[in-house]
Model the fold of this input.
Amino acid sequence: MVVDAYDFWLFDLDGTLVDAEWSYTRSVFDRVGERIDRPFSDREAEIIWHGLGGARNPILRAWDIDPAAFWPAFHAEENPQQRAEATYLHGDADALLSVIDVPIGIVTHCQSFLTQPVLEQLALDERVETVLCCTDETGWKPDPKPVQSAMKQLNIGRDSVGVLAGDGESDIGAAWNAGLDGIHVERHGPDHRGRCVLGDYRVRSFDELPY
Done:
């Protein structure tokens, strides 16, 4: 059984354990578009929000958007409480978390000022032992450093076997770069994503895992 095979589990947050209602996402991109004087289509908003095309900064540059201008505008328009209230826990993620009885951590690109309210709103802070929000100092997935930092916080032993589950290719890359198995949960479909993401396990829902 997959769950019993690991001594610890790490998860990405957005798109993996939780998601935000589309109305919230759309409103954020509307306001960001006004700030930088560049409107976003629904498809463009989806691509950036969910990371459908891979790393976001190269995509922004391909659209002639300076990431150094976009991200401050994006974070300025995110409201932590509204984000938390608009965020829901995926049912399959809830079920999987309920059967894991080894240490659990989260490694997310979502910034701490947004992550903590979401965790509290959904009581996820009571179900995980550590949360690492990536920064320039910690490194960004697929860099293994944030994963390794989370493992250190969990006091993971050298011979422990672990896994990282996420919805993006950067999650699987970070898992493999850190010597972990990678589970890719594809919540959008490869046609909508525009590419196929590899993984040791590839599922549309965590319900597909044998446990």
Remarks:
- The chain has two domains: 3-20+87-208, 22-83.
- Residues 22-83 form one domain.
